[in-house]
Amino acid sequence: MIFRTMLRFLWRKSIIRNILFSYLGINLILLFLLGLVSIKDSTHTLREEIIASRYKLMEQAARGINFNVEEAKRPLVQFASHASVIALMNPDHTLSLEERIQHERSIAELSKGVTALQTLISDVLMLGTNKYVNNLDNRKSLQWNYPFWEQPWYLKAVSSSGSRGFIPLYLHQQNYYTEAMLSKINSQTFAISLPVRGYRQQVIGTVIANLDLQKINGLFELSADQNGEHIFMLDEKDTIIVHPEPGKIGNHLVFEGIEAIHSSESGSFVATIEGQERLVIYHPTSIKGLRIVSTVPMSVVYAQADPLKATLAGILYLCLLLNTLISIIITVRISRPFTRLLVTLDRIGEDSLLVIPKNYKYRELNLIGNKFKELVGRIEQLVKQNYVAQIALRDAQLKTLESQINPHFLFNTLQLLQTEIVCGNTEDSNHLVLSLSSLLRYSMQRDQGQVELADELRNAKDYLYIINKKYDDGIHITFEVADPALLRSGTVKLMLQPVIENAIVHAFQENPQSARIGIKVASMRRGVCISVTDNGIGMTRERRQWLTRRLRGKSDSTGSIGLINVDRRIKLTFGPAYGLSVRSRHKAGTTVYIVLPGLL
User: Fold this and answer.
1) Which one of 4-13, 83-92, 362-371, 545-554 scores highest in mean pLDDT?
2) For the segment 337-386, what is each residue's pLDDT rounded down to a tens digit?
3) What gap in Å lies between CA 499 and CA 563, rounded to an integer?
4) Where are the beta strands (DSSP E) in 454-549?
5) I need a labelling partner for 204 at 20 to 30 A (CA). Which of 151, 159, 177, 599 fits?
């Protein structure tokens, strides 16, 4: 409240505004002068820090890749130098069946060790120039007629006759597995190979290690930085080998200046990638042609402050805060008496019109406070008088409504009773007399502000009995109470009768044929819900919206004694959370819902 009052003073010319603006003006000038000190752009320093931290992360990832690749090379050396592998791939020597079986067993024993110890290798292919094919599960998962010897990656593995080391085959698709290998079939793999040489050192085949890309990517995820940027790997053709997003593996990375990645061992530069300016950092691996690449949005660089700016900003903010606090303290001490008076004035009418006298610092404010107290006292007296008059008038109107019986309805009932007596229907005549007397007795009771729902339902049954007799029992009436305990709920008198009368007059247009009226009582979270449903002509959308607005009090409802009056009586008795709501469709009937608070 104090700050709100100060804002009022600041909006108009005042001493408080002059004092506060003087202090704030000094703060702004100080801030501007100190800001001139920060003339050095620290983006370059921050960029070098990011590059250095990224190099550490990429070196960590490179060491992990190098270690695991070296571990993956060991099985290739074992297979390529194994006598059984060389014997089975030798195109110049024909083996007997017993020799072939013995060699296959020896290779199977070696494969078990690779499967148990190597976590990065997903499979090892053994392909000979003599069409020999094998893998770690003894060809069980391989397609028997797959043309391995036509694949580019195989030709690359066996064509490097001059190379005696490992050959990176990069990415290729594993489309040579059977459907039983769902985890591998048609998926990408990164492969390295080692030629198998015969006794004369000629290339007689190759062993290829397929590496698990998900596990390789796990090494990169361990090296991710705190801002969530990812590190990925490119081959010599700028194809993405490993990436945290699997959908990008196998795609070509294209942007202006990408050739710089392969021009040196490591480095960094700024480039535009996919429309965003990024800092590109690259680092080599132990595999020839492969680069670990990291891209950092320059917006991250620009968004971070260097140590100099952070220190300077802290000093400036501290000075601004201290001066602002001093200015506020001074202005509050000066404006406190005025603020106390304004707070008192603002609180009038929120909870009550009571004014508590206060001893203000200045004599003039005390005079104003006392005069205002006298004025509020007179206003409160007038409000109470008007309120009592309005309550009395509303109470008289409601009591008049409660005691009112439609003369036309009473005339029709007596005429109906005469007809039944003339016709000799003693039982129906007696029932009509009892129902009419019950209606009159119920409406004339004035000593109860509320009644039980059971009494209101009993009155509705009497009213419906008389109405139904008028229309030769043409209305099918049903009553449904979910729990008899709900009948002890409190309600206002003559609540259901106007709703039922509204259904007779408007829904059936006083000509009920195959008419149905159902009254249902059920519990709900807020209390009790009474629904009155008819199968009459219903309401159009415009009529329903008009009635809803009147129930919500958004349009004039003067003179209404139907649903609007029932809704207002419930709200006056129980509060605005209760009352009526209507659901209706044209030519599909109407349901009026009455919500009450529950048990008395």
Assistant:
1) 83-92
2) 666 666 666 666 555 555 555 666 656 666 776 776 777 777 777 766 66
3) 6
4) 475-481, 490-491, 515-523, 528-534
5) 177
Residue 495 φ then ψ, to 5°? -90, -45
Predicted local confidence at residue 558, as pLDDT: 45
Length of the chain: 600
Running DSSP on this structure, what letter comes out for residue 305?
A: P
What DSSP string runs through 382-407?
A: HHHHHHHHHHHHHHHHHHHHHT---H
- Listed residue (257, 269, 256, 262) closest to 295, CA to CA: 269
pTM of the predicted model, to two decimals? 0.45
What's phi and psi for 235, nearest 5 deg?
-95, -175
Confidence band (pLDDT; 50, 70, 90) for 102? very high
Which residues are bridge partners to 239 per DSSP?
252
C-beta of residue 353 within 8 angstroms of C-beta of residue 376? yes
Q: For residue 117, give the DSSP letter.
A: H
Say how far apart CA 409 and CA 566 lie, in whole Å.
19
In Å, how far are 233, 240, 353, 435 from 166, measured between CA atoms? Answer: 19, 21, 94, 107
- Is the separation of the CB atoms in 590 and 507 below 8 Å? yes
d(CA 301, CA 518): 72
Task: Indicate the burial class of 463 (C-beta count within 10 angstroms; 0-12, 13-18, 19 or more).
Answer: buried
d(CA 542, CA 555): 14
Residue 144 has pLDDT above 90, yes or no: no
Per-residue pLDDT averaged across 467-473, rounded? 81
Amino acid at 513: Q
